[in-house]
Amino acid sequence: MDPEQPLNRSRAEGSSFVFVNTSGHYGGQRAQLMLPPLKENDTHCVSFLFYRRGSTPPVLNIYIKGSTHWQCSSPVLGRIENNGLLGVPVFNASGPAYHIWKGVELAVSTFWPNYYQVVLEAVSTGQRGAVAIKDITLQGHQCMGAPHFLHIKGVEVNAGQTATFHCTVNGRPQSDLLLYLQGIGGRQAALSDIKPGNSRRYVANFNVENTTKGDSGQYRCIGQSERGVGVSSYAELTVKQPPVPIAPPQLIAVGATYLWIQLNANSINGDGPIIEREVEYRTLSGMLIDTTPVDKPTHKIGHLDPDTEYEISVLLTRSLDGGTGRPGPPLRARTKCAGESGHMIMRMMMVMRMYAPVMLQWNQLSPF
């Protein structure tokens, strides 16, 4: 088949198309077609036809710049999210040329007052080739070859935990549909499991494991098939860092069997709010003695051994699983020796008794 035939037929039929010739261009050079922003109130479908020619034809990427935020300064227009960044393609056509016009449907679940923009991008492979786009239409009904998503909720977790997103899909599960979670920063998560909802929809679950602060940001659900792609709205993943005190506790008083401390844990690294405080103490040799919850700014640690050095740290906990941070900097303190402190049980008193010598003298009595 003549690779020019589909294009010539379109010309003969009087239809118009956008044509990008990448011959003579370096590999990686890009040309973009940006459609007007779409502000739809209800279910809809964007469709178009594309054609690629050449021994190593250009790559066709499709981007969806969506919106989940309201811009107060422009209540009429809303706001495109991610500061206008393209993000990651939701559809990609690469490899050998087909030499026919192929159709693609886009089911984007973003609605007024938010809006989105479709960006079509041709990327040169450094070889002779071309790509063409035609018949871009907006239809007021569901796509036939791409899934539609319902609203997706944001997730908050503590660092190191697993964030689970629940994506509700209209229709029934299909074996040829690739479902995955896509982050604006490029991180993706494969499908974890599917749970049936009712006869018209099901829930696809995705796990973002071993989360870090760097994973925070916007995520969306993607469903790809041969005929098109479904794109959910964005939802926020918030990853919080468990709190750790910056300074060690302060020593208030010392006895032979107790140490009295002030927690000194108002300044922290990480995130709050703090819902629980604990004091952890161990001997200097490293043997953990105990971890005790506390609800006051000061705490008395009792039942300790005399003349023994201890390390004392404070642990802080925020809400959700995995919210306890590492122990803060330790305070080193030694208890006093036995008998060095304590109450006097009996007061001893010594009384000195002095004995003075007595001189006796007998005098003779005169008779009467």
From TrEMBL:
SUPFAM superfamilies: Concanavalin A-like lectins/glucanases (SSF49899), Fibronectin type III (SSF49265), Immunoglobulin (SSF48726). The keyword Disulfide bond applies. It holds the Pfam family ig. Coiled coil: none annotated. Residues 1-145 form the MAM domain. It comes from the Eukaryota. Residues 147-238 form the Ig-like domain. Gene3D superfamilies: 2.60.120.200, Immunoglobulins. Keywords: Disulfide bond, Immunoglobulin domain, Receptor, Repeat. GO terms for cellular component: membrane. Residues 245-338 form the Fibronectin type-III domain. This is Receptor-type tyrosine-protein phosphatase mu. It comes from Takifugu flavidus.
